């Protein structure tokens, strides 16, 4: 199958504005040719002046030629502006449609896929990458049409007046063109891809670093603790310097070639005039010296347009990569779960296709029970919770809620069954009321206030200037991590789903907020099936069943007392945890 061109792919988003793109090219070509007409009048002005030399007062047409040159110059600019108006109207529509399709697709993707990309990369694809396509359509394509038309018109002018000087002036142009082709070849395309990858990585790591600034400040760490962010900056620096050095010589030769046209013209003028100075040759020589810089400018435009084409090629590749991510298959009709029980049957999942994050895991969490997952990092705790929420589907086995396979439950029905509270819950730039109401858009103001009370949030509301109508992030109104967590719990309380997933809900809370969050969670989890992921083992001692995850498998399971009696992995973890807590208390007492 023949690969579709970048332009054809972009035009697919243009709709009825497609004709404006093509019209902008035509107008740009007309503008480019109109811009050459003033040079014709300049030549006529020079001829009139040289013909009456030394009595320049007899050059009666110079003024009229000058005004005509100005008129055509103004007309060229006006036509070019019309071309840009057409191209921008089309480009804005195309960029808008690209962004809409990307956002619709991202909304349909499982959360596991979007989390894998990272918010920095997704934002760059949606904003920066689509902006590259917009710039390409709005400016580069009309300019490219004009840049191609200009040499055609110049070639006619150069050969009409004196074909010998015209051919001489084309020699350095040809050399410059060959060097330009070398610089903008396949190697340049590969380098451009590396450049965009480096920018994307740096953007993503920058977002993650900024989000981690509170942790840096809390623990007194430096920027070097964020090794991935620093590594991305160092890689970009080395790449940029190496790339610049690699292009130093070719760019020097290119600049020399396109600016060396004067040397060829002067040598030709001397050669063609012989011992005497011929007026016609002198006239043409002066004219060529005036007009040939346009060639260099045009070639440089074409070179940068080649680079922009590569940027758009890379941008479309990233857009296609994101659009190529498949949403999870949707169930045709919603099968209602019988209850809020959770069951995993021989579940295996791998993120990269090599090492399994979960390996043949089977378990049952009866409706209304509290299950906790603990274990070392990388043991599979978060993966197990993510599969329960259907952030992605297992490669083997199945996950059931209320006896129904998650793949047979529609997305809307599933979201009615499950609530989440993550360790890094975030609020939108909206009022507290609207942030909480996201869980239940039709909820009344009284229902939202009731959920906030149950989530221990009234102390937060009372200190805000407009209460629950205060917009977070506006006029310096910001909440701490623990306060944001309580608002997120209020959201989950308002939703009142029968299954609750808590992923390190108290991880970054200070002692005061932790106490309030624990009270809010107690209110939230009453009568619900609860899945908890925790590193603070004291928060899960009341769980009905604790699962110890290790290397993707269930190493141990049982109640808190049963696991301590086994003196296995959990008992060792508990011993380490209590030792650390006792050390902290002793240290605070000494202080």
From TrEMBL:
Question: Could you list the residue ranges that cross the membrane?
Answer: 20-43, 65-90, 251-273, 285-304
Q: Where is the ABC transporter domain?
A: 342-576
Might you report a single GO cellular component term?
plasma membrane
Record domain ABC transmembrane type-1: where:
26-276
Q: Which UniProt keywords are listed?
A: ATP-binding, Cell membrane, Membrane, Nucleotide-binding, Transmembrane, Transmembrane helix, Transport
A Pfam family per the record: ABC_membrane
So which domain of life are we looking at? Bacteria
Q: Which Gene3D superfamilies match?
A: ABC transporter type 1, transmembrane domain (1.20.1560.10), P-loop containing nucleotide triphosphate hydrolases (3.40.50.300)
Q: Give the bilayer topology.
A: Multi-pass membrane protein
Q: What is its main location?
A: membrane
- One GO MF term, please? ATP hydrolysis activity
Where, subcellularly, is it found?
A: Cell membrane
Among InterPro entries, the record links this protein to: AAA+_ATPase, ABC1_TM_dom, ABC1_TM_sf, ABC_transporter-like_ATP-bd, ABC_transporter-like_CS, P-loop_NTPase, Type_1_exporter
Recorded hits in PANTHER family, A to Z, give: ATP-BINDING CASSETTE SUB-FAMILY B, ATP-BINDING CASSETTE SUB-FAMILY B MEMBER 6
Output this protein's name. ABC transporter ATP-binding protein/permease
């Amino acid at each position: 199958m023949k690969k579709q061109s970048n332009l054809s792919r972009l035009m697919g988003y243009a709709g009825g504005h497609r004709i404006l793109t093509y019209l902008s090219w035509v107008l740009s070509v007309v503008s480019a040719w109109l811009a050459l007409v003033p040079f014709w009048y300049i030549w006529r002005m020079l001829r009139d002046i040289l013909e009456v030399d030394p009595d320049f007062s007899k050059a009666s047409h110079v003024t009229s030629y000058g005004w005509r040159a100005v008129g055509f110059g103004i007309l060229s600019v006006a036509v070019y502006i019309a071309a840009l108006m057409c191209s921008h109207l089309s480009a804005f529509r195309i960029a808008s449609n690209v962004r809409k399709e990307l956002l619709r697709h991202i909304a349909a993707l499982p959360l596991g896929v979007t989390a894998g990309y990272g918010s920095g990369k997704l934002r760059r694809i949606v904003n920066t990458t689509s902006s590259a396509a917009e710039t390409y359509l709005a400016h580069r394509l009309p300019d490219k049409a004009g840049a191609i038309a200009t040499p055609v018109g110049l070639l006619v002018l150069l050969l009409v007046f004196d074909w010998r000087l015209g051919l001489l002036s084309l020699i350095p142009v040809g050399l410059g063109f060959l060097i330009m082709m070398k610089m903008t070849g396949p190697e340049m395309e590969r380098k451009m891809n590396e450049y965009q990858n480096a920018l994307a990585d740096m953007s993503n790591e920058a977002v993650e670093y900024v989000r981690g600034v509170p942790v840096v400040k809390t623990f007194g760490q430096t920027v070097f603790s964020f090794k991935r962010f620093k590594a991305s900056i160092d890689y970009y620096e080395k790449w940029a310097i190496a790339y610049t050095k690699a292009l130093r010589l070719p760019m020097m030769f290119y600049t020399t070639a396109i600016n060396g046209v004067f040397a060829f013209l002067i040598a030709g003028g001397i050669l063609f005039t012989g011992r005497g100075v011929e007026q016609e040759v002198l006239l043409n020589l002066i004219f060529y010296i005036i007009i040939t810089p346009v060639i260099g400018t045009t070639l440089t435009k074409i070179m940068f347009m080649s680079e922009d084409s590569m940027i758009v090629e890379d941008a479309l590749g990233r857009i296609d990569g994101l659009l190529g991510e498949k949403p999870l298959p949707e169930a045709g009709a919603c099968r209602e779960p019988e209850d809020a029980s959770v069951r995993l049957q021989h579940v295996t999942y791998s993120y990269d296709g090599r090492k399994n994050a979960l390996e043949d895991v089977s378990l049952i969490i009866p409706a209304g029970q509290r299950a906790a997952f603990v274990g070392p990092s990388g043991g599979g705790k978060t993966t197990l919770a993510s599969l329960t929420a259907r952030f992605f589907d297992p490669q083997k086995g199945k996950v059931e809620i209320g006896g129904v396979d998650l793949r047979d439950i529609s997305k809307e029905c599933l979201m009615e069954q499950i609530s989440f509270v993550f360790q890094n819950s975030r609020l939108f730039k909206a009022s507290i009321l609207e942030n909480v109401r996201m869980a239940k858009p039709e909820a009344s103001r009284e229902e939202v206030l009731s959920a906030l009370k149950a989530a221990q949030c009234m102390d937060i509301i009372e200190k805000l200037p407009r209460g629950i109508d205060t917009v977070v992030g506006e006029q310096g109104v910001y909440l701490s991590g623990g306060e944001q967590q309580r608002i997120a719990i209020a959201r989950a309380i308002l939703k009142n789903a029968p299954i609750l997933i808590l992923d390190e809900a108290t991880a970054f809370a200070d002692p005061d907020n932790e106490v309030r969050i624990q009270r809010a969670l107690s209110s939230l989890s009453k009568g619900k099936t609860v899945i908890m992921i925790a590193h603070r083992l004291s928060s899960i001692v009341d769980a009905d069943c604790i699962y110890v995850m290790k290397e993707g498998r269930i190493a141990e399971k049982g109640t808190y007392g049963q696991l301590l009696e086994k003196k296995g992995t959990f008992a060792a973890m508990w011993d380490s945890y209590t030792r650390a807590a006792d050390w902290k208390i002793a240290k605070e007492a000494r202080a």
